[in-house]
Amino acid sequence: MYIDSHQHFWQYHPEKDAWIDKTMQAIRRDFMPSDLEPVLHANGVSGCVAVQASQSEEETSFLLECADKNPFIKAVVGWADLQGDNVKETLLRFSGHNRFRVYAMSYRVNRTILCTVRPSVGELKNSSPWGLLMIFSFLPGNCLPP
Question: What is the pTM of this model?
């Protein structure tokens, strides 16, 4: 069995997706599961892991909805604001979905800001039936001592 381990889906919005400039015409459009499924089948790939393309909880909800409608989406990598006041509720809500597997967190922070996670996040490992896996990705030059 072959699985595409990193696939993005999105509904293109010029304002929200301003990073997709005119030189990237090939991706200045919607990319939905219906675009990918025939390509997977044609190449003998059984499914994919959908990975968040933007840092929002709405994006995670969108990917979980895609997974509900498309069985070839085997798992979802989502996002949450780990500094948010409702982080525990958010993580528990998403972790209740049967295809949700991982939270990814990428922050672009000023070098003088301390990179911390709210203390309540540490409590979640024991609250989730399968444990909580988080991927922390800090962009180069960030979170280093000043």
Answer: 0.74
